[in-house]
Write a structure and sequence with these properties.
The chain has a domain at 47-148. It is built from four helices and no strands. It has helices at 12-15, 27-90, 95-124, 130-148. The protein starts with 11 loop residues before the first helix and ends with a helix.
């Protein structure tokens, strides 16, 4: 004889059988349906929370990347200013003016990157699944209202 097949835990086998009419179902069947529906609801809410936290973490990473880019560009701007000072002191020539203009442009780029990074980091705060929390609270309120009837 062959061993019995293990039951699937994804609920696919149970989905084929429609639930009995609640007005015709016994208390045991209703309790069984309730536990199944609560389990499914909890699993779905956990999946939603995971997706929301992943999205916020991705935004945070992108924002931090822009801050890093702003730091690199600012460092290049400092290097250009140092070069401008060296050229200005060494040869009082128009070459230093070009270096100052490059530094100003680099600092402007750094400022834009910093603002973009700040905006993305602000969107990721707080790193809590706020939408999922609101959804769970709505589920709890619905269950409370149904039970109080």
């Amino acid at each position: 004889m062959s061993a019995p097949k293990p039951r699937s835990t994804d609920g696919a086998t149970r989905a084929a059988v429609p639930p009995p009419d609640p007005s015709q179902a016994s208390t045991g069947e209703l309790v069984g349906q309730l536990s199944e529906q609560v389990s499914r609801l909890v699993r779905d809410e956990v999946r939603l929370a995971q997706a929301e936290v992943t999205q916020k973490a991705r935004r945070l990473g992108i924002g931090l990347g822009f801050f890093g880019g702003a730091g690199v560009v600012a460092l290049l701007g400092v290097g250009a200013l140092v070069t401008a000072a060296i050229l200005g002191l060494a040869n009082v020539l128009p070459g230093w003016l070009a270096a100052v203009l490059v530094a100003v442009v680099l600092f402007a780029v750094a400022g834009v990157l910093a603002l973009i990074g700040k905006k993305d980091v602000d969107k990721a705060k707080p790193p809590l699944p706020t939408e999922t929390i609101a959804s769970v609270q709505a589920d709890i309120d619905t269950v409370k209202q149904a039970v109080s009837r």
